[in-house]
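User: Can you help me understand a structure? I only have the sequence.
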Amino acid sequence: MQSASWLEDTTAGPVAHLLLAHPEPRSAFETVETIAVSMDHLADALTLAEAGPYIRIRPAGRRLYLRRLAAGLTIDGSQGFGYVAGIKAEWREAVIAGTPVCLSVALDPLPAGSNHANVSAFFYESMLLGRVRMGTVNLADWR
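Assistant: Let's start by predicting it. Here is the structure, written out as tokens:
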């Protein structure tokens, strides 16, 4: 699983984005189609919905937890889903301060080694094509 996080200033205010994407096929048994099905199942488990320029993003619940410079997600209320790499201190601080988090799952593979500009272009193109599932998530209460 690949991930990317970034902060964006929007007309509605700042947003902390967290994108999950699968790498390109790594074996003869993985195809773009099987990856899309797998990522769609993940999006369903996270209760994310189809995204687009005129679709309102709905809440997906308290699914995010932070550990130092890593973020984790939960599907069933436990800490069992796993950590997401690439969280910067600025992103973490913004989330702790209350910046809304938009969790996105891309159905198509993200090319390996993508820089921020490539990730941004991939994300917005995928969103326009209806190939991203999104939801807002809140910090889970882990004590």
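Now, to help you interpret it: The chain has one domain: 2-139. The mean pLDDT is 88. Let me know which part you'd like to focus on.
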